[in-house]
Write a structure and sequence with these properties.
Strand order of the largest sheet: 4-3-2-1-14-13-12-9
Radius of gyration: 30 Å
Keywords: Cell projection, Cilium, Cytoplasm, Cytoskeleton
Number of helices: 5
Strand content: 15-25%
Structural class: alpha+beta
Shape: elongated
Main location: cytoplasm
Oligomer: single chain
GO cellular component, one term: radial spoke
Subcellular location: Cytoplasm, Cytoskeleton, Cilium axoneme
């Protein structure tokens, strides 16, 4: 289960980290996330089998994932995420079992086994819950692969203050957003000119206009903004708490603090981002299911958030102690009986 062994045995590996743990009914999955050297590939024709899978290094396949059941079990690489699997995963609610080869019994039908469902859920969670402090990353415009991020030069020196990291305004999404198609973007019509019909190109243009791509490094304060109560100052998608000593101490030429800020996702229970000083990390430990009971219902319909499951219920409000009742005398008090004279037969006092 050693990450060092996995890194030594994997060619072309650029980075590797512990992504988290997905819980199952019969077993759990430990998940490792890595980035391999991205390959520039020609665009696939819309509707073709290759179009269902984004190239390595892009969108849902920006990273590669390995899983193990723990102990001395070897790491197994998961397949690339398919857009059709991501779309189908949004329509079902299924508890994972811990067996990759097990059939997924669900309604609607899922076009794959548990291995494909696990990969689709990892793609959805990573897209929503991979965060970074604002100003840490920037889009690499010179990279050959679209939507490639790089660390800003001097990012450690200009790291946001602890007070800023304790607010939603100090954080951004560091992974591509997945559209309703299950992919992060629309086909490049210029590169496909002459390869698809004009009707197909017009259809893609209309879809892209109705659902535009979301830019990278978008702030998290806009998440579920439509569910934000009128009197609330922050969005309902994230909960932020601060732990530890909040004091600021002199350290060399600068200052340091022992404060730890933690961000928890309210729609993917188990997803957390923590930061201390200039170091931050993302981790997920949960059942791989989206939850809608920790955020408010949709304002128009009053129904729970679409595509969620009431897996975790919020505790009921604590009732106040009832008011004490006024004491009254017994309306029919018990009369004391006359003491016995210890004779053979007690005489009736009323006789």
């Amino acid at each position: 289960m050693s990450l060092r062994k996995l890194a030594a045995e994997t060619r072309g590996l650029e980075s590797l980290r512990m992504w988290g743990k997905v819980l199952g009914t019969c077993g759990d999955y430990y998940v490792a996330e890595g980035q391999l050297t991205a390959l520039a590939t020609p665009p696939a024709l819309p509707g073709s089998p290759d179009d269902d899978v984004e190239p390595r290094g892009q969108g849902a396949n920006r990273c590669v994932y390995w899983i193990t059941s723990g102990g001395f079990e070897p790491w197994k690489r998961l397949p690339h995420a398919r857009a059709s699997h991501v779309q189908a995963a949004r329509s079902i609610k299924h508890m994972l079992s811990g067996e990759l080869s097990k059939d997924v019994v669900s309604t609607p039908w899922f076009p794959g086994r548990e291995e494909q469902l696990l990969r689709a859920q990892i793609a959805r969670i990573s897209s929503t819950c991979t965060l970074a402090p604002r100003g840490w990353y920037e889009v690499d415009e010179e990279a050959a692969v679209k939507n490639t991020l790089r660390v800003v030069e001097g990012a450690s020196e200009s790291f946001p203050a602890p007070e800023e990291l304790a607010t939603q305004g100090g954080w951004v999404h560091a992974a591509p957003f997945l559209l309703s198609t299950g992919k992060s973007g629309w086909p490049d019509l210029e590169a496909l000119e002459g390869k698809i019909s004009e009707e197909k190109a017009a259809e893609i243009s209309a879809q892209a206009e109705n659902e535009p791509e979301k830019p990278l490094l978008e702030g998290i304060e806009a998440d579920l903004e439509e569910l934000k109560p009128e009197d609330a100052e922050t969005g309902p998608a994230w909960s932020i708490k601060t732990y530890g000593d909040e004091g600021v101490y002199a350290s060399g030429d600068g200052t340091k603090t022992l404060r730890v800020s933690a961000l928890r996702s309210m729609i993917w229970p188990g997803a957390i981002t923590v930061v201390k000083g200039t170091r931050f990390a993302n981790l997920y430990v949960g059942y791989g299911m989206k939850c809608g009971t920790l955020v408010g219902p949709e304002k128009e319909s009053g129904l729970p958030l679409r595509g969620t499951l009431p897996l975790m219920t919020a505790p009921e409000d604590i009732m106040e102690e009832p008011a004490d009742l006024e004491e009254h005398e017994e309306p029919n008090p018990i009369q004391d009986e006359a003491e016995s004279d210890k004779g053979d037969v007690d005489e009736d006092p009323d006789a």
